[in-house]
């Protein structure tokens, strides 16, 4: 039996870009760069074998922080609708397997998740 499950999660990515280092006497440890997200390089992240994406309920579904040393922290909320395999004859006590994969064109490793 194939059933659909909705999954919402936060994906956090962090990297270092020396071009974004800055020095100031501000009491803040990072810049909130949410309004500059089109001007900052962001990694291309792809979701494979996932099903469908659901539109976010809130208009701003990410956070972008740039730290003084050039570290960039990117947090994004994703909402997936997954197609899962289960055993109909013991539903709702089955243990459905919902898999999706995630990769980036800039990262050498491949990450796969089972929910």
| Number of beta strands | 8
Instruction: Write down the overall mean pLDDT.
Output: 79
Q: Tell me, what's the shape?
A: elongated
Q: Which regions are unreliable across 5 or more consecutive residues at pLDDT < 50? A: 110-115
Pfam family, one: Neur_chan_LBD
GO molecular function, one term: extracellular ligand-gated monoatomic ion channel activity
GO cellular component, one term: membrane
Protein name: Neurotransmitter-gated ion-channel ligand-binding domain-containing protein
Could you describe the 3D structure shown?
The protein has a single domain, classed as Neurotransmitter-gated ion-channel ligand-binding domain (Acetylcholine Binding Protein, Chain: A). The protein has no helices and eight strands. It is elongated.
Concise overview:
InterPro entries: Neur_chan_lig-bd (IPR006202), Neur_chan_lig-bd_sf (IPR036734), Neur_channel (IPR006201). GO terms for molecular function: extracellular ligand-gated monoatomic ion channel activity; transmembrane signaling receptor activity. The chain has 115 residues and is an all-beta fold.
Which helices and strands, and how do they pair?
Elements: E1 2-16, E2 30-32, E3 45-48, E4 52-53, E5 62-67, E6 71-85, E7 99-104, E8 111-114
Antiparallel strand pairs: 1-6, 2-5, 3-7, 4-6, 5-6, 7-8
How would you describe this structure in keywords?
single chain; 115 residues; mainly beta; Acetylcholine Binding Protein, Chain: A; 5-stranded antiparallel beta sheet; 3-stranded antiparallel beta sheet; 8 strands; 0% helix; disordered C terminus
